[in-house]
Amino acid sequence: MLRQVLPELLDHLPADDPEAIRSRRDLRVINFLMGNERWIVRQARRLAPASITELGAGEGILSGRLAMIAPVESYDLASRPTSLDPRVTWHQGDLFATTPASGDLLVANLFLHHFEGESMKGLARWCSGFQSLCFVEPLRTPGALRLGAGMLPFVNRITRHDMPVSIRAGFLPGELSQWLELDPGKWHVREQTSWRGGIRVVAWRA
Asked: How far apart are CA 31 and CA 38, in angstroms?
């Protein structure tokens, strides 16, 4: 299945739109079923970073959990969530108009698949400033599409559109390492796929 990056409807709705609110609720359920945030938190505890940076932090739920491990810097187009843990520093704006940060651990959950081409090169520049990386993205396989189709009757119109779009924009094993320019001479990379439709990547400096 060739990778295809298309616009997702949720990204173009106002935050207070009722359909956007419902779709974000759908995404919280999907995240729970996929185990994404639990896995990232486990990796963060194992890596024991001095600092954590999250890209595409959304509602700030994962950032809040990570703040119990280390200080967190979060980046998103959206404004700071009102209930966010005060230990999280929030940066609102276009990630690619921001000077890439540096630190210990860089994480992203279902965020990198939105990008291709020059934007992926921009993400590679962000990765270059960190000591370890932890990402979960959609696994781009027919099996993941079939699994997602099983959830379509239970989600709203926005999620029904965006879920297969996300999967088709996802990654296969080995692709993220290439896109993010993780030189095997400089990085140790461990990947695993989940039967729940995710590809999980953790990398640390050689």
From this structure: 9
